[in-house]
Amino acid sequence: MPRKFMKRSLAALVGITVAASVGLTASPATSAVAPFKVLAFYNGTWDAAHIDFDKDAREWFPTAAAQNGFTWEATTDWSRLSASGLAQYKVIMFLDDAPPASQRAAFQTYLQNGGAWMGFHVSAFTTDPNSWSWYYNTLLGSGAFQTNTWGPTAETLKIEDRNHPSTAGLPATIQSSVSEWYSWSRDLRQNPDIDILASIDNSSFPVGTDPNQQWRSGFYPIMWTNTRYKMLYANFGHNGMNYATNTRTSSTFASAQQNQWLINGLLWLAGAGTPPTTPPTTPPTTGPISPTTWYTVVNKSSGKCVDARAAGTTSGTAIQQYTCNATNAQQYQFAPTSGGYVRVNNRGNSAQALDVTNVSTADNAPIQTWTYGGGNNQQWQPVSEGDGYYHFVNRNSGKCLDVPAASTANSVQLVQYTCNGTAAQSYRLVAQS
């Protein structure tokens, strides 16, 4: 078993209470799909990080399902893994374990008869693959657990198969959420039935923060499918945790691009097709910015929208990034001032404009809304990068609107930072009605 499992077994056995989840939502699909049902199985009894992932999933998936035309349910009752119990479900999931021995035959029959399955992280963990060879050696193709990285980290993933429906609309590399990562005894590249969808990109090495549990080179598959079955496996599913206080430090659903893969994958497994890349659902602005049009402002790195926290309409409201939802809190108007600069008004209260706190000229000064008074710290120059993307330069400081540390998480307050040409400072404008 991984070294960190051994270190934490006592805490797991005494029963750890999960931390409160960060509220994250999925990007809605815009194409109509036939409704379908997903049933997720879990135990929720081993390792605080896995228990917390179960809780995270039980909060995120129902919202994502409602936005994408299906329903999602979770259960700890593995007896429902039977022909009669699964009759109404298009897809089943294993969140944190494989089924007990009594239900293995039913699961194998279900997949061999055309059923669809998605598994996460520890659902593939075993030190004895021959205990259920069909599952570990044939279906997953991974064999035995070999190594794990520690501590949990977010990594750049290389999309190995950009033609698979689950990777539709994704770029050549994506940013994962934080996870611990597993490697396996079998080389999936040597299995003709396995289609590796994503792997650790070489730019990510070393992976892990503990020098004794790092990957420094090599090939490590992260998402894959077995072409003989309707299945997807994801290596992620381990939230970052403060084990001393039993509180979450990261969410598995913090990466918009990873979430897009999940939704695309579920729609493919259910035979419902895949939605177009979202958000936004309309083409980005490529011509001049209209001073009377309202726009959503989408960060290139995270895929999330510039947002007035809690839909605030008063001075001092933090400007953050958040999953795009088309509310007034995420719509902005670019009203010219002078010299190519604009004030950026929020639709919730058009008297409120984007403002650098305390008229600061320092890096990492936070962005808020404030009643417009003509200050240079309230004026921004939109600089076109082509293809509908812009960076925004503050008139007072000469610095750019920036997502700190290129975060992909919800609720991260935006700042100004020395302009550097990165995707964290690049935004596309999408006109709203």
How are the SSEs ordered, and which strands pair?
Layout: H1 3-13, E1 36-41, H2 48-67, E2 70-75, E3 91-94, H3 104-112, E4 116-120, H4 133-139, E5 145-148, E6 156-159, E7 173-175, E8 182-184, E9 194-200, E10 221-226, E11 230-234, E12 241-242, E13 247-248, H5 256-269, E14 294-299, E15 305-308, E16 319-322, E17 332-336, E18 342-346, E19 349-356, E20 367-371, E21 380-386, E22 389-394, E23 400-402, E24 412-413, E25 415-417, E26 427-432
Describe the overall structure.
- This protein is α+β, with helices and mostly antiparallel strands and 433 residues long.
- It has two domains: 3-269, Class I glutamine amidotransferase (GATase) domain (Rossmann fold, 3-Layer(aba) Sandwich), CATH 3.40.50; 294-432, Trefoil (Acidic Fibroblast Growth Factor, subunit A) (Trefoil), CATH 2.80.10.50.
- It has helices at residues 3-13, 48-67, 104-112, 133-139, 256-269, and strands spanning 36-41, 70-75, 91-94, 116-120, 145-148, 156-159, 173-175, 182-184, 194-200, 221-226, 230-234, 241-242, 247-248, 294-299, 305-308, 319-322, 332-336, 342-346, 349-356, 367-371, 380-386, 389-394, 400-402, 412-413, 415-417, 427-432.
- The strands form seven sheets. A nine-stranded mixed β-sheet has the order 2-1-3-4-11-10-9-6-7. A four-stranded antiparallel β-sheet has the order 14-26-22-21, with no helix packed on it.
- The longest helix is centred in the first third of the chain and has 20 residues, at 48-67.
Top-tier CATH class of the largest domain = Alpha Beta
Shape: elongated
Helix content percent band: 10-25%
Side by side, the strands of the main sheet go 2-1-3-4-11-10-9-6-7
CATH topology of the largest domain: Rossmann fold
Question: What would you report as the Rg, rounded to the nearest angstrom?
Answer: 23 Å
Number of strands: 26
Mean pLDDT: 87
- Backbone structural class: alpha+beta
Distance between the termini: 55 Å
For the record, what is the CATH homologous superfamily label of the largest domain? Class I glutamine amidotransferase (GATase) domain
What are the low-pLDDT stretches, counting only 5+ consecutive residues below 50?
3-32, 274-286
